[in-house]
Design goal:
With 462 residues, the chain is an alpha/beta fold. It is built from 13 helices and 19 strands. The strands form three sheets. Strands 6, 7, 8, 9, 10, 11, 12 and 13 form an eight-stranded parallel beta sheet that branches. A six-stranded antiparallel beta sheet has the order 17-16-15-18-14-19. Strands 2-1-5-3-4 form a five-stranded antiparallel beta sheet. Helix 4 links the parallel strand 7 and strand 8. Helix 8 crosses helix 11 and helix 12 packs across helix 13. It is globular, with a radius of gyration of 24 Å. The relative contact order is 0.13. The N terminus is likely disordered.
Amino acid sequence: MIQNDIFSLTSQSGVQLANNHSVHQSRKKRGYRNPNRESGRFLHEGTACGVLNIHRTDRLKFLTEEGCKKKIDPSKVFFVISSNPIEQRASDKQKRLILVGGFLGAGKTTLIGKLIRHLQTGGLRCGVVTNDQATGLVDTALAETLDGARISEIAGGCFCCKLDQLEGMLTGQWQDDPASSPDVIVAEPVGSCTDLIATVVLPLRRIYGEAVVISPFSVVLDGRRALASLGGRRTPGDFSKDVGYIYRKQIEEAEIVVVNKRDLLTGEDVADLLARIESNFPEKEVFLLSARTGEGLAEWAERITATETAPQRLMEVDYERYGIGEALLGWCNAEAEVTCQHPENGDSFLSRLSLAISSTLAEQSFEVAHFKMALTDADGRLGVINQVLSGTAPEISRSFGGDFRHGRLTVNLRAEGDPDRLREIVEQCVRQISQDGVTAELREMAAFRPGQPVPVERVTML
């Protein structure tokens, strides 16, 4: 049974707890991590007038605004705080959260898109939470093309460092409109992060209890990069040892390893990679699939929606080395307005610009982690091109579908190297493509190295 604390609005103090205990004491007894964040319902004379996850200092502002809209007498409003952020009636389905991790360029976004459509075909309502160290994400634009799915974005840090925000977004998706809330939310953490079992999965399991089932944590690998990183056939896709430390830790903590891009591996490569995974990470459960073709998707989806997370141990992480590995990666995000005097083919434009950037990166020996560009226009069309390994050509993953005259370009570039130099390369190539009737004007630009990861909470014992 869900227990509630009832608060009434007062003109002087803003909030007063009905049983005269402080907010901190009441919530601390029930094991809450953050006494300043609350989930619950606003009741006006017994009738619900709002459901939200909110910082308690904002409650008075919310009531004032809503009171003006709905002619509510504040003196007759009560805020009911649930001991679980998700209020669940006996008739409700149990909610499910699926975290899909993996390194930059592993194909997580494409795989999640296919997973969402697969779940929707089975009659489930779905939500997605994307995540990155910066704003202006191609991944979010792609997620927004998933009809019927609710989309949220957390930028400026990984889920582990933004746990309060993640909890708020999850609870918001589930509670904003309970009648149509997602049955399943799929969350995609930043590709350069690890230690997510201890800093995200287990804290969320404690917060939500039985109201939410958290699926086994899946880590997605690009089969080609995995083979190189584990000492197999060398490809133009190997990182320095400190970046490789993060990569291997991601595999180590996975409850399920998903080897993606099966269609790009030979039978010999598959056998070699599976043997290396077994040798380095014994007894890992491995799924082979292709997000592009859909091969193996149904089997993986059935596995992660039929069971829940059950980590057997917590891995040790050297956070100093983890931070060094992240700091070796450069992030560059850019947005530009593109204007063409004559109709320009969207896919051709993306291909020319991405090839110019990719070639310059190769000439200067940058190892690409993931390079994405998206082109959108006022008609809602979206084209996307990707490069996930140095030495491979950028590929159109979503066709723009024709010509355009005005569009918005988004660039997400992650590579091992100096972010200021990445910025210069993007700026240079955008300037160079502004010719022959095409003008590309940069509007926003950010280049940086990720900061030292500092989790909000880290579970140290199972």
